[in-house]
Amino acid sequence: MLHIGDKVVYPMHGAGVIAGIEDCEVLGEGRSYYVLRMPLGNMKVMIPTDNVDTIGLRDIISIDDVEKVRDVLTGVPEHVLGSWNKRFHANLERMKSGDVCDVAAVARNLILQDRLRKISSGERRLLDLAKQILISELVYACGKTPQEVELWMDNLLAKNGFDR
């Protein structure tokens, strides 16, 4: 059971805080929803309370897990062979897992790919989404601003031989 003030991650959307619980009627059916406020873009997402387990909502990573993210960002990038379309779908499936290390790997790999050879507009949107999801969770895990988290990520990637 989630409570107001809990910090959670919603796969493919990012991290946010449970700001409230609202009852709404949709298509004649009354349901209870968690209201999730996201730190980036001032977005509000409503999640049916009875659907939380099936959508993959999870707690924010611990500060110890931030080290795992750092290791991924500074790790050796993976090269996915094939067309941009194949890479796009492989990366999309990886991000849907909701695992923060998978999201970090997608961001790292797409940044490298973009430096070697410009990525497609679809992959660019996926990269932007991966960075947004990653930053939103790290904001809560580290207690820093989005700008501080993005600078930290950029510095890690630059030390690894590639930058933004």
Structural overview:
With 164 residues, this protein is of the alpha+beta class. It folds into 2 domains: 7-59, Thrombin, subunit H, CATH 2.40.10; 63-159, Up-down Bundle (Methane Monooxygenase Hydroxylase, Chain G, domain 1). The protein is 50% helix and 20% strand. It is built from 6 helices and 5 strands. The chain has a 5-stranded antiparallel sheet with strand order 4-3-2-1-5. The radius of gyration is 17 Å and the shape is globular. The model has no long low-confidence stretch (mean pLDDT 90).
Descriptive tags:
164 residues, alpha+beta, 5-stranded antiparallel sheet, Methane Monooxygenase Hydroxylase, Chain G, domain 1
Q: Beta-sheet strand percentage?
A: 15-25%
Spatial order of strands in the largest sheet: 4-3-2-1-5
Backbone CA Rg: 17 Å
For this structure, the quaternary state is single chain
Low-confidence blocks of residues: none
Mean pLDDT over the full residue set? 90
* CATH second-level architecture of the largest domain: Up-down Bundle
At the fold tier of CATH, the topology name of the largest domain is Methane Monooxygenase Hydroxylase, Chain G, domain 1
* Estimated helix fraction: 40-55%
* Structural classification: alpha+beta
The number of helical segments is 6
Shape verdict: globular
Whole-number total of structural domains: 2
> Which superfamily, in CATH terms, is the homologous superfamily of the largest domain?
CarD-like, C-terminal domain
Number of strands: 5
SSE run: EEEEHEHHHHH
- Could you give a short account of the major beta sheet? 5 strands, antiparallel
What distance lies between the first and last C-alpha atoms, to the nearest angstrom? 39 Å
CATH class of the largest domain: Mainly Alpha
